[in-house]
Amino acid sequence: MSARRVAITGLGPVSPLGVGAAEFWNALLDGRNAVRELASFNPARFESRVGAEIESCNIQDAVPKAYRKAGKIMARDIVLAVVAAHKAVSDAGLVTRCLLERGDHPGPCNLDSARFGANIGAGLICADLPELAEALANARDGEQFSLARWGAEGMNNLTPLWLLKFLPNMLACHVTIVHDAQGPSNTITCGEASSQLAIGEAFRTIQRGVADVCICGGAESKANPMALLRQSLAGRLSRRNDSPATACRPFGRERDGTVVSEGGGLVILEELEHARRRGARIYAELVGFGASNDAAPPAQPTTPPADGRGVLLAARKALRDAQVGAEQLDLVSAFAAGLPQHDASEAAATRALLGGKYGQTPVLAIKGGLGNNGAGSGALDFIAMVLATANGTLPPMVNGELADPALAPKVVTGKAVDANIGCALALSYALGGGQNAALVVRRLRD
């Protein structure tokens, strides 16, 4: 029995460049840049003070009225995922319980909730620092932290459901409750590779026949003090505070690191005939998935293999799964966050994969105007690639004019260009984690 075919029918990006597929795509076409000095908190004491933040992302617009109180126990990452879910479901033309209860659609539901699954990637959710700081202050015994006082007084500052705001699985939990997704559900926490791994697992879930529709992807906010500190200590951030617009340089010469960001995206995957029966718009067909791990010794947590062997292995697995040769690729969506060694490693993998077509096959890299938002970054890369494939257009790469000649990828600069994209490959990897993912999409042929 052959595997069932999987269509991409809904896109829900939530990013500093725009919320929703149309806003996000138009921003990419215009070459907009959302990187500036961080404004949601005072970054003055940090070495890197720039990043990309979402200006408007309202949970009230994404859930039924009866569910709005649940927003009180949603950390920023959860809010991003719930808003992305609403955008993806609406874009796909699905009628879920959420849309019925909000009055957004007269009904009835057009999918079986028991066969509606979810796979969502999540990262390290930042705690509510003011709330936690007050609790810790009340737990002091002089200048020392006291477990006795923490139990007697400090914890009284925390709400009874405090922990539920910060568990990684709560992104999928709230999304599945709001949209009544009763099928297989899972959470993946593998750093920046999380969302593409989640899309791949949802792809397999539909292929196996245990779901007809899956909502998948990921979200994370790194635009907070804890994430900024972690990334700074790891030596991953650009220090170009005097020039935010050119701080993040994917595959760039004189690149000195990435910038923090927030956002992500959820995607609707659907069994092809299920999508056709309800007359759904189909962006593209997902045809291949590959994953690998290159964290084994002598690899170092902060240093990727110079030859990019982990990324290359995942890409070759995905192409084999799709029964597509590397010479058939018309586009590669790169992770490319502006990190000196990681960009070089990814370029080496892509060169080995494409062979003589390297330098001729266009590379899409969107983080120059967006930064790295961790578990949601791969979803945004994937969505950008799907939109490029569906629209036959390649958006310009922000800071593409700064590309390193030594890496020599083919990138679009200046203005968007028309392109005939029949088959495309998306790559992602976890910084320091060793996990790699690759996804292959194809323009629907029959």
Describe the fold and architecture.
With 446 residues, the protein is α+β, with helices and mostly antiparallel strands. It has helices at 21-30, 76-92, 97-102, 129-137, 147-152, 170-179, 194-207, 225-233, 272-277, 309-322, 340-354, 377-391, and strands spanning 6-15, 18-19, 36-37, 50-51, 116-121, 140-141, 144-145, 185-188, 213-221, 262-271, 284-293, 331-333, 363-364, 393-394, 417-418, 423-429, 435-442. The protein has a single domain, classed as Thiolase/Chalcone synthase (Peroxisomal Thiolase, Chain A, domain 1, 3-Layer(aba) Sandwich), CATH 3.40.47.10. 29% of the residues lie in helices and 19% in strands. Strands 1, 2, 5, 8, 9, 10, 11, 12, 13, 16 and 17 form an eleven-stranded mixed beta sheet that branches. It has a two-stranded antiparallel sheet with strand order 3-4. A two-stranded antiparallel sheet has the order 6-7. The longest helix has 17 residues, at 76-92. The relative contact order is 0.18. The model has no long low-confidence stretch (mean pLDDT 94).
Q: What class would the helix/strand composition place it in?
A: alpha+beta
- Fraction of residues in β-strands: 15-25%
Characterize the largest beta sheet: strand count, sense, and whether it forms a barrel. Answer: 11 strands, mixed
Number of domains: 1
Q: In CATH terms, what is the fold-level topology?
A: Peroxisomal Thiolase, Chain A, domain 1
End-to-end Cα distance: 20 Å
Kindly report the name of the CATH homologous superfamily. Answer: Thiolase/Chalcone synthase
- Count of alpha/pi helices: 12
Order of helices and strands: EEHEEHHEHEEHHEHEHEHEHEHEHEEEE
